[in-house]
Amino acid sequence: MAAYRALRTAAPHGLPGALRAALTRHYAVHGVEFRLVDYAMDALRPAEGDASGDAGVVSARTGPAGRAFGSQRPFVEPLDGPAGADPSALLTAHLPVSVRGNAVGVLTVRVPRDRLTADVIAELGEIAEALGHAVAVADRDTDLYLRAGRTERLTLAAEMQWQLLPGRSVSRPEFDLGGHLEPAYAIRGDVFDWSTSAEHLTLTVINGMGEGIEAALLTNLAVNALRNARRAGLGLAEQAYLADQAVYGQYRGVAYVSALLLRFELATGLVTVIDAGSPRMWLRRRGRVELPPFDAQLPLGMFEDTEYRPERFRVEPGDRLFFLSDGVYDAASPAGERYEEKALARALSSTGLLPPGQVPRAVLEELARYRGGPSPEDDAMVVCLDWHG
């Protein structure tokens, strides 16, 4: 198909223009716009043009484009009045752009009403997905799409942290997974990481220590040490041990990392866990939210030659797991009441109908209202996992 060929052969920075030309030729479109979601997941920003301006920016949560982004399904704007009966009238279709469940933006096209059949919408949806994959590859060679997704300049520490993240969400038949950090543009040290194989999902949630560059360097060391051990084929206890040694060898116990390490067997739902610090996991099962009692072990890098003992439990189809940093559960209201004490279970239950990719943002919005202000004193990180089995 011409659109796929255009995406394969275009220069990394020229994907929107090449796709626009191909769609104009083969689908008689009268306009093509490609928008990327910003780091805070508040806005959809044009992939082309002045990244610092607001021209063409639309909400990622409301409006037609926001509806397509939030639902991850195509949305066609209806025509009202006499134009609705005109076969040549232009319909505007908004198509989600994603990469293996990671929502990155929306492709908007305007097509004559008589040309926009269900089959054409399906074809355009597949092209939008191909665009997402093309952008993921192009990001290795151009900063265009990364810049387009920024409402403001990132701090250097935030730049380092965002480069560590595997994505905002991922989907597989066995599970759906989503995560988010707040504040998006000046984060201190919290991060999450995941990796999938044919047999396993490995998930790591890290609660960083310190602020600024020091926190980013510490977290980068810990995450890359864990990845190095994981990619060597080592088990979860060995991954924790080697990351512990790497952090201790660099900081000699002055700085350390709190982490929660999990490895899911996709075929059975058996989960191996190492709780090495303060990130916590909540489990919602059959409508009830509880905090599983894991054995709290030492953070990574606090002492030399720490041995970590794995624990095990089993997830069931329909389970929803939440992973939260202390910037969430230790946040306080203006009256001094901790978020964990009353509001957290209510927030986790109220997001039950949302997909995991949208849950972290919804919980963090609720947290901001509870806090009474938009400026947190610490990183707030939420990761949500739905287990299908």
UniProtKB/TrEMBL annotation:
Molecular-function GO terms, alphabetical: phosphatase activity
Highest taxon, organism lineage: Bacteria
Keyword Hydrolase among record annotations: yes
Entry's transmembrane regions: none
InterPro entries given in the database record: Bact_Sigma-Reg (IPR052016), PPM-type-like_dom_sf (IPR036457), PPM-type_phosphatase-like_dom (IPR001932)
Residue ranges annotated for the PPM-type phosphatase domain, each copy included: 172-387
Keyword entries, A-Z: Hydrolase
One Pfam family per UniProt: SpoIIE
Name listed for the protein in its UniProt record: Phosphatase
